Amino acid sequence: MESNTQNTPLSKQLFGEDFIWGVSTAAVQIEGAFDVDGKGESIWDVFATKKGKILHGHHHYTATDFYNRYQTDIDLIKQLNIPNFRFSIAWSRILPDGTGKVNQAGINYYRKVIQYCLDNGIEPWITLYHWDIPHVLEAKGGWTNRDVVDWFSEYVAVCADAFGDLVKHWMVMNEPAVFTGAGYFLGIHAPGRKGIRNFLPAIHHAVLCMAEGGRILRKMLPKVEIGTTFSCSYVEPYSNKPKDVAAALRVDTLLNRMYIEPILGLGYPADDLPVLKGMEKHILPGDMEKVKFDFDFIGIQNYTREIVKHSFFTPYIHASLVKAERRNVPITAMKWEVYPESIYHILKKYDQYPQIKKIYLTESGAAFKDEVVENRVNDPKRTEYLQQFLQQVLKAKNEGSKVNGYFIWTLTDNFEWAEGYNPRFGIIYVNFETQERIVKASGLWYANLLR
Ligand code: FCB
Fold first, then answer.
1. Has 289 been annotated as catalytic?
2. N or C: which end of the chain has fewer CB atoms below 10 A?
3. In which band, very low, low, confident or very high, does the pLDDT at 7 lie, cut at 50, 70 and 90?
4. Rounded distance, CA 221 to CA 218, Å?
5. Assign residue 439 a region: left if phi > 0, alpha if psi is -120 to 50, beta otherwise?
6. Cα dist from 162 to 110, 209, 384, whole Å
7. Burial tier of 143 (Cβ tally within 10 Å: 0-12, 13-18, 19+)
8. Does ligand 1 lie within 6 Å of residue 178's CB atom?
9. In angstroms, rounded to a whole number, what is the distance separating the alpha carbons of residues 341 and 240?
10. What domains are there in the chain, each with its CATH number?
């Protein structure tokens, strides 16, 4: 009895035999090689050339050089006993002109990555869209142009055809809230568009594409597991004044409900977020049927919680976030509150949707300043965060949550979008001058949990 338990990894003892364990990445953040082997330009390739958009003038042109180092990085995944690897496909490597001509070199590259995973007993999990639409399509309006549904459908079909014989787990999209909010409303991510005029059509087209992408995958690959991922933050009002409570409801709707509820067949939650009424002009007859899709799983990604108060001056939502720095709470290098309990509340919330069959936590992690001392990186804060996060997941699971998997964000330190290379999220340290890797103490902790 005892020796049996000793041989079973702690992860399985705590979470059961079939719980999925993995690590997540995204093409722009790791690959580099942004202009080789026939790749076209993505919106990030163009955004990075604009002054002042990315902190310290950083760019992703080399990133962690995963394009050339995928074998040794996948060797590290194996060394850390991590059985599942989530990564994204760069649309502009597959279809350099967005649509039309397929770039065989791009397909060959991802097939090599996938095959190398499989040869090493690691299951590949593909994200089709992690924020990098080809620039040529952005020049035609990108996510604001309804034609994106056709463009995206073509891309999904090419990928299903190219990788469907090897890959059993697919995610259509990564966090539509972030790429539409940051990229098409605030202008702080690529392509840098601003305003409600861009935001509302981008939301609707992203939602249409998620559902359509799901349908194409299911038709072409009836046996694979299909999901899509959402960013979520537990939202609480700053005080129990009715105005703050109402503001928190609007922000919760914006962050946690707006993209998933139409997919689940519940429509856009415009009653709780009146600005969504402006979306009506982008919704064509029959669309509310088209935005529905019965995903096999929903990917949830959570990093923090938000505290919200009423704000008369903030247009559209009349609410503002009370920054963690001003609340005297522990924060990460992203200035996000360290609040692992957030995931427990989020799971409770999503478990209430009867339409959701299964939940995988497809990203979570924390950026802290790391220091190399005698060729080691001791990162107790990160390990502690990951441990506490998992405790909250376990608590929800033991109470009957539909959660059945967890992927750490992220494998190696990488290019953190508009924040450049300063925030380090990896369980493996990267020296960006030499590309040397050092497994952090948190990586060893994860390996031990999975051993
Ligand atoms: C998520 C993104 C991921 C990474 C983490 C820190 O919103 O999906 O690419 O940047 O945040």
1. no
2. N
3. confident
4. 5
5. beta
6. 9, 19, 40
7. buried
8. yes
9. 20
10. 12-450 (3.20.20.80)
Torsion of CA 268, 269, 274, 278, to 10 degrees: 0
Inter-residue contact 233 to 177 (CB < 8 Å): no
Give the separation between CA 366 and CA 62, rounded to whole angstroms. Answer: 23
How far is 182 from 53, CA to CA, in rounded Å? 12
Given the CA of residue 26, which atom of ligand 1 is nearest to it? Answer: 9
Rounded to the nearest angstrom, the distance between the alpha carbon of 412 and the centre of ligand 1 is: 13
363 labelled catalytic: yes
26 CB near ligand 1 (under 6 Å): yes
Residue 50, classified by CB atoms within 10 Å of its CB into exposed (0-12), middle (13-18) or buried (19+), is exposed
Produce one character per residue of 157-183: b if its CB has 16 or more CB atoms within 10 Å, e if not. bbbbebbbeebebbbbbbbbbbbbbbb
Whether residue 386 contacts residue 445, with contact meaning beta carbons closer than 8 Å, is answered with yes
The Å distance, Cα 130 to ligand 1 centre, comes to: 9
Residue 219 has a pLDDT of 98
Among candidate residues 175, 225, 236, 261, the one labeled active-site is 175
Q: What is the mean pLDDT of residues 9-33?
A: 98
- Ligand 1 touching residue 425 (CB < 6 A): yes
Ligand 1 contact via 363 beta carbon (within 6 Å): yes
Paired tokens of 114:
């996938």
Cut 0.85: pTM above it: yes
Alpha carbon distance 233, 303 (integer Å): 7
Among 41, 337, 363, 416, which one carries the catalytic annotation? 363
